[in-house]
Write a structure and sequence with these properties.
Layout (H helix, E strand, L loop, with lengths): L12 H7 L30 H18 L11 H13 L18 H11 L5 H13 L2 H6 L2 H13 L4 E4 L15 E4 L5 E12 L6 E8 L2 E8 L5 E6 L10 E12 L3 E2 L5 H37 L1 E2 L2 E2 L4 H32 L9 H11 L1 H26 L9 H9 L9 H17 L5 H8 L15 H25 L7 H25 L5 H32 L8 H9 L14 H15 L7
Helix pairs in contact: 1-14, 2-4, 4-8, 5-8, 8-9, 8-11, 8-12, 9-11, 9-16, 9-17, 9-19, 11-12, 11-13, 13-16, 14-15, 15-16, 15-17, 16-17, 17-19
Length: about 625
Amino acid sequence: MSVDTQEKTKIDFSTLVDLIKFDNFYGRGGSFLITPLNEAKVFSKEMFSDDQKMFANAALEYANTRLKPLKDDLKVLNKDLTLEVFKEMGEMGFLGVDMPEEYGGSDLDKTTAALVVDYLAFSECGSLMVTIGAHSGIGTLPIVWYGTKEQKEKYLPKISSGEWLSSYALTEPNAGSDAMNGETTAYLNKEGTHYILNGQKIYITNGSWAQVCITFAKVDGKMTSFILDKQCEGWVIGAEEKKMGIKGSSTVTMYFENCKVPVENMLGKLGEGGHIAFNVLYAGRWKLGFSSAAGCMSSMNVAYAFAKERKQFSRSILKFDMIKKKFANMVVKTWESDTLNYATTGSIDESISKLDKNESDYFVKVQRIIEDHAIEASICKVLGSDALAYCVDESVQIFGGAGFCEEYPAAGVYRDERINRIFEGTNEINRLLIAGTTLKKAILEELPIRDVISNRLDNMIPNINQNGNELEKEISVIEYCRSLVLGTLNNLINVYGQDLKNKQWVLEPLADSIISLSVMHNGYCRYNQLESGDHKDKTFVVLKCSISDHYEKIISYVKNINKHIVDMMSFKNDKDKSDFCSLKNQSINSIDYFIDEISLKMQICDEFYKNEKYYLNS
């Protein structure tokens, strides 16, 4: 049949979407984008297994009884003390939680590995947490995932025990976010026994204390990874950087001056360095989210303790409403970050649990699962570091003049926090990853995003049978926002095509709207899965406040995008343009959704004052 006479069948997308079993997408990266609330679920800390509770309690006890008393000593460079506690943590199993048992690890899931970081962070030792993160994450996982049996046997037992400290060297003077533009080179010597590395790496955490380093160099133009140790002649360590914060961690420049690396120390395959470099950063990002959320909790608790004693106008500053608002906002932002962190590792663990550890390509599959969660990893990093920035900044404000003085804790934490929005990929880079990966998943149909978009074009609030639910309006708002965000993605694809990946003016608000959608979606699911009782009642108020806030944010983001692209689209008249820019005539207008956030925040602060600490950890 010719093209001209071929009968064209109209596709009924509503029928296609009805056939999708959304619960099958649990464990897939980005599934929150498409899964309606009635078919969604998430992991949260309320679902900890007995083993996870044991590790959490052990880490928290060690943080409070051993590390917190040392926090002032660990605020400055203290190599001997840092290495001493490192060996202790290795003996307790904190450094090899998700490392294979045969190499000294516990071979547990990603959630358990991350919660150790979470609960150790209550030590309030910011520099030490940076040292731990670089060691057990980016400094170790490349060997676990890509190392040969001989490499694993040589390095992992000493890394997991804390006997050796590890580091990761990727950044160069002319290659920061643009890591693949690195200028460090390597060539094979005439004898074929060693690769000779030349170049330099900057801002390397653990650099002067590490016995092991994962680094990268170009061999004939191909980015390749290597394992360095102290036997590598020509590995030169520069002076310690004089930093704004995290002054108790080692940060140096490394120089490779005809550095001789044995051929057996090539990590992975020739030219596989880029893949190794980027894959390991995903784990670093969600772990940073965990430590950031814990930092939020510590910051608000410390600020509360100070405010309780600080008086102005003959009364405690806790009595002032603007101070109450600050604490309420801290609680909400912290709960959101905490929710996304565990939702992410829980989803990853769900997929990893289905793999056979005895298969030769087990770690290849693990890496693919983690890479599949690139959106979530970046959200954890951005949401957590932004939340911590807010909490620490407001903590300084609550301390007042004392917050500007070094004898009080707020000033040091304020400096320490700032790096979180820079390393593990700047928050700008991570926003580009969020939007870009969403675009990729849509175009390559890794998720049925386009089917869901088509289904929702004329029905932005699908009926998911939640009538009578106490959060019926919030459910409709979340589903509307899902439709709005996906519809905006569709509009941007239609306007820019694949060139959208270069349009940062609209990618940033698109990424922010995706972050807000993930908060709303996962927050509702976490609450919905809680058992009835006091904890669920306390969470209810925080959830309502969170949904209201992120609804307003998404509306603002989409309006700004629409106003920018309206003249690039086809509309019949000016009224249609105006309606598009203002989101008029949308089904959301029929919901009558107006939330008194002030009253909600009053309740949140009252509960915080009653507990005298962050209260949603149970």
